[in-house]
Amino acid sequence: MAHPLFERHRATLERALTAIADRGYWSPYPESASPKAYGEGAAEAGKAAFDALRDRPFALDQPGSVGSVGCERSPYGFALGITYPKPDADALFAAVGAAAAGWRRAGPEAWAGVCLEILHRINRQSFLVANAVMHTTGQAFMMAFQAGGPHAQDRGLEAVAYAWDELRRIPATALWEKPQGKGEPLRMRKNYRIVPRGTGLVIGCCTFPTWNGYPGLFADLATGNAVVVKPHPAAILPLAISVRIAREVLLEAGFDPNVVTLFAHAAGDDTAQTLALRPEVRLIDFTGSSANGDWLEAHARQAQVYTEKAGVNQIVVDSAADFKGLVRNVAFSLSLYTGQMCTAPQNIYVPQGGIDTADGHLGFDDVASALADGVTRLLAEPARAVEILGAVVNDGVMQRLDAARALGTIVLDTQRIAHPQFPDAVLRSPLIVRLAAADSGTYLQEWFGPIAFVVATRDTAESLAIASDAVRTKGALTLAVYSSRDDVIAAAVEVAEDAGVALSINLTGGVFVNQSAAFSDYHGTGANPAANAALTDAAFVAGRFRVVQHRAHV
Prior knowledge:
The protein has a 7-stranded mixed beta sheet, sandwiched between helices. Strands 9-8-7-10-11 form a 5-stranded parallel beta sheet, with helices on both faces. It has 554 residues and is an alpha/beta fold.
């Protein structure tokens, strides 16, 4: 008999399986924050729930707590004042190990059913999560609601769907018969058991804690592994809420809640590395800097490590049938969340002789000026600007922004924008700097934040060559091309496939290069240094379990 939670959510899972097969648009979690989607008063209740969490200990009953920790500060200018249980690592991992045994025996239907119920309940708390994401990451509210809520939940469900799709292919038992001529055939009963790899460690990031954290969390759970969630010290709350909901569902379903635990810690210590090297940890999911990701890959040899690291995202501009649409699209991509996205474009390559458009030829300076004007127009209205930009997440972004102003000719200087609700918030518009192709030592480094370079190249062929080399050596999650010429588009496709990066072609409408749709887009290829594995496919889940058989003669 199927697990009751599996039966409760079977229709959602089956629809998710269809979605990952046909790759069309689908989501079970409404991205609209309207009362029609989530009910009257849901927004107000979520804000009230967030306010109620502030300036007090976060209720989380976990074993082995030795004091408390927490110093989150909203990028909008105030301290959250929330503290979390500080775990003793040995005691926590002992409890996780004890809990894992019962979870392992439960089997794939229970794993999937519990995961689906967790996601369902997280979705019901989307407004609470949105406020938590907004005031830890600096995302504007609507982005925090969508990316931190329903879109992140989509990514969690996507991982569950891939896991179930793989696990359901494995039969529980088989009768094996081998003919022996005139003699009786050899007969054996073979039993196949899915064996989880071991405890998973999910290392959260400070910009997209749920969107980047849920895939690993739910991929681990859906393949029978226990999970320790280690949030970034600046963005604990969104994952703490998620862990608490997961523990509630596990307990109600008859499992030890220590299948999912939170490991909060202070900033500046070596907790991530210490946990990553524990022998119990057999799976690690990490989003963050190349230095930390490279360290995990090199040193956490006892674990299967999945990393999403820094990269240099690029746009190649060759020509344009809709130049105004190009400018609008690129301006929004540069401005969204102040460029603090792993998919945001940084380098824009334009031939020094200019480009052809439907309205005539434009010189290089004309193109650069148009991009600057596009950003300026987009952010001209303060009320609109703050909802696009959000707030700067940390001082490191500001330091890079100040340093980048001295790198070349400024095409568009960054501006400070006042937030009407949060006067202490730090909001900065994008900086656009002109560079030459020879300045590769500058623009082939990642400048995380609202920093873009318009690079003058000899021609489009050189632009594509630079882009290809950058993907191979530095890594990238996105590449875009604008061209009205079929041969250039074909060349860009070849570069993307050979170098291993997702390509967007002539985006001029409401889809942007720094957006990735669950169930349809493959986020990360695993084919360049920015990610060591594709983060949304069967391979992302297949390494999280093994099959062990036992057989006997019939």
